[in-house]
Amino acid sequence: MFNNLSDKLDKALHVLKGHGSITEVNVAETLKEVRRALLDADVNFKIAKQFTTTVKEKALGQDVLTTLQPGQLMVKIVKDELTELMGGDAEGINLSGTPSVILMSGLQGSGKTTFSGKLANYLKNKKTKKPLLVACDVYRPAAIDQLHVVGEQIGVEVYSDKGNTDPVAIAQAGIAHAKANGHNVVIIDTAGRLAVDEAMMTEISNIHAAIKPQETLFVVDSMTGQDAVNTAKAFNDVLNFDGVILTKLDGDTRGGAAISIKSVVNKPIKFIGTGEKMEAIDVFYPSRMADRILG
Ligand code: GDP
């Protein structure tokens, strides 16, 4: 994951790691390299610039140059800042409702259906949860079938109503079905379009307003780089969602989305998808990700 970025940051910081004492020039050059590495990873220009400015300020504030191991301290400052940029402490999802309703949003192909299945499986394995999946894509019958396949695979019931063209009504009926059948979590998979458009935004915001979910998640393909960040912004403006799911981190994504998204929409990344299989889901821990990136 993010091998290229890791290599570049490692190279940038390597100069400092070996030095007993470092100079301001060392620091300035290193930060320039760090910024270049972030830009290469598709991190937004402003974010990369702010990042290095903050690191520099912290380094000056902690009198890095006069400490015993200035290189190590610099690496720590960079790591802490990267963690902060990606979200600070890990945050869970809100499962307080009876049932707890989780609404999925995102573009077509982002991995919503796959992630709905993964999350249902993840929660089901927690034993106290009995999830229900609800298929609200009224445009693509194949999407409904796909959710049924996923549900069968993980042994989770799927509620659907093929032929019904009102996603709000399906979502409401799904929640009623959950209540009547002892499901304590409802995961609602919605339709996505290939690009952000008004009709899709109106539809998802209507569903959101009608069912008032405990948790609204935005699913995004990390391979789409800066586009991922722009799409997140568009969805957040309409839904004020609670968290981000970054999918396809197993691919050769450069990592820019993972690093930038939190500071643009100010919402935590909650889970990541790391493969097509139902088990390929991980809670997102910013500090672990920073460790992984910085080795
Ligand atoms: P949806 O249109 O948003 O519901 O997207 P799908 O769930 O149908 O996913 C689109 C494609 O991406 C499918 O081929 C999935 O198998 C694949 N996919 C989803 N999540 C991941 C992931 O984390 N890693 C990889 N490699 N593929 C994924």
Automatic annotation (TrEMBL):
<feature type="binding site">
    <location>
        <begin position="189"/>
        <end position="193"/>
    </location>
    <ligand>
        <name>GTP</name>
    </ligand>
</feature>
<keyword id="KW-0378">Hydrolase</keyword>
<dbReference type="GO" id="GO:0006614">
    <property type="term" value="P:SRP-dependent cotranslational protein targeting to membrane"/>
</dbReference>
<dbReference type="GO" id="GO:0048500">
    <property type="term" value="C:signal recognition particle"/>
</dbReference>
<dbReference type="GO" id="GO:0003924">
    <property type="term" value="F:GTPase activity"/>
</dbReference>
<feature type="binding site">
    <location>
        <begin position="247"/>
        <end position="250"/>
    </location>
    <ligand>
        <name>GTP</name>
    </ligand>
</feature>
<feature type="binding site">
    <location>
        <begin position="106"/>
        <end position="113"/>
    </location>
    <ligand>
        <name>GTP</name>
    </ligand>
</feature>
<comment type="subunit">
    <text>Part of the signal recognition particle protein translocation system, which is composed of SRP and FtsY.</text>
</comment>
<keyword id="KW-0694">RNA-binding</keyword>
<keyword id="KW-0733">Signal recognition particle</keyword>
<dbReference type="GO" id="GO:0005525">
    <property type="term" value="F:GTP binding"/>
</dbReference>
<keyword id="KW-0342">GTP-binding</keyword>
<keyword id="KW-0547">Nucleotide-binding</keyword>
<comment type="similarity">
    <text>Belongs to the GTP-binding SRP family. SRP54 subfamily.</text>
</comment>
<feature type="domain" description="SRP54-type proteins GTP-binding">
    <location>
        <begin position="268"/>
        <end position="281"/>
    </location>
</feature>
<protein>
    <recommendedName>
        <fullName>Signal recognition particle protein</fullName>
        <ecNumber>3.6.5.4</ecNumber>
    </recommendedName>
</protein>
<keyword id="KW-0687">Ribonucleoprotein</keyword>
<comment type="function">
    <text>Involved in targeting and insertion of nascent membrane proteins into the cytoplasmic membrane. Binds to the hydrophobic signal sequence of the ribosome-nascent chain (RNC) as it emerges from the ribosomes. The SRP-RNC complex is then targeted to the cytoplasmic membrane where it interacts with the SRP receptor FtsY.</text>
</comment>
<dbReference type="GO" id="GO:0008312">
    <property type="term" value="F:7S RNA binding"/>
</dbReference>
<keyword id="KW-0963">Cytoplasm</keyword>
